[in-house]
């Protein structure tokens, strides 16, 4: 999964060109150029970074340089959030490497002194083993339910990190809210335009907010050969916003309990 760099730079208020140069020249980040649909609905070549490297790049950004062009209060908030993220990342790296090279010392082994103590120790060991097996079985059952849902999120998302309205309806999972009903609801709320060539296209304020993108395309036409089309796509930010602000429901976020050993 790859993520476009420029929209993140825009949201952080950090200059795109220096970040582009740094990522291209620094070989430790897995990034390349990809043709994607930009927020204006046009196809553009954009620099993308593998999602697993995203945290490392965010850690490398100078927090004093973000928030450019923003009001003072908003700039201070963005800088504080990025600084807090980088500090937490530092703590996580410290804890990982400290634990890796300085594991906790093993507790001293106490041997049973008689038959009764040996029997108690054996019973306690067996109880712990059974409890561990029960926890693993319960977590495996939970993962069996959650894993398809988590994988569905990945499968539904396109390479540009957006969802179709049909995919959003599937993720929300309400029987009374298919893609047609979702389009109708968003039009009635004044979020999408109604009628004409701009039917179901978001108003500019919602595009600028990063909730939607418009993908340009074309379809065959008997009279004209091909006709240009515009398709509304929902971003991850937009999915969260629709759930919280339009539907007033929790954001669907399936997560695995943990990986159960084979």
Task: Give the structure's gist in a few sentences.
The protein has 262 residues and is an alpha+beta fold. The protein has helices at residues 5-12, 16-25, 51-60, 72-101, 115-156, 165-172, 179-188, 204-208, 236-246, and strands spanning 2-4, 31-37, 43-50, 162-163, 212-221, 225-235.
Estimated helix fraction = 40-55%
Could you name the ranges where pLDDT drops below 50 across 5 or more consecutive residues?
A: 254-262
Shape: extended
With helices defined by DSSP (H or I, 4 residues minimum), what is the helix count? 9
Distance between the termini: 26 Å
User: Total strand count, please?
Assistant: 6
Rg is 25 Å
Major pleated sheet: 3 strands, antiparallel
The strands making up the biggest β-sheet line up spatially as 1-3-2
Mean pLDDT: 81
Order of helices and strands: EHHEEHHHEHHHEEH
What is the percentage of strand-forming residues?
A: 15-25%
Give the assembly state of these chains: single chain
What structural category arises from helix and sheet content? alpha+beta
């Amino acid at each position: 999964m790859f993520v476009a760099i420029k929209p993140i730079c825009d949201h952080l208020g950090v200059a795109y060109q220096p970040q582009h140069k740094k990522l291209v020249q620094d070989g430790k980040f897995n990034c390349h150029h990809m043709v994607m649909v930009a927020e204006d609905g046009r196809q553009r070549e954009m620099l993308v970074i593998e999602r697993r490297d995203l945290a490392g790049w965010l850690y490398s950004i100078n927090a004093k340089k973000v928030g450019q062009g923003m009001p003072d209060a908003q700039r201070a908030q963005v800088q504080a959030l990025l600084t807090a993220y980088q500090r937490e990342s530092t703590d996580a790296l410290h804890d990982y490497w400290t634990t890796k090279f300085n594991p906790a010392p093993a507790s001293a082994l106490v041997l049973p002194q008689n038959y009764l103590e040996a029997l108690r120790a054996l019973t306690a060991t067996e109880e712990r083993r059974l409890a561990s097996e029960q926890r693993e079985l319960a977590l495996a059952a939970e993962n069996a339910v959650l894993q398809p849902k988590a994988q569905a999120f990945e499968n539904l998302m396109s390479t540009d990190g957006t969802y179709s309205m049909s995919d959003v309806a599937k993720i929300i999972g309400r029987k009374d809210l298919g893609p047609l009903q979702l389009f109708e609801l968003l039009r009635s709320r004044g979020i999408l335009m109604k009628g004409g060539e701009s039917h179901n296209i978001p108003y500019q304020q919602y595009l600028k907010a990063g909730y939607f993108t418009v993908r340009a395309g074309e379809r065959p036409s008997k009279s004209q050969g091909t006709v240009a089309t515009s398709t509304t796509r929902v971003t991850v930010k937009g999915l969260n916003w629709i759930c919280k602000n339009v539907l007033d429901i929790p954001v669907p976020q399936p997560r695995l309990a943990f990986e159960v050993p084979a």
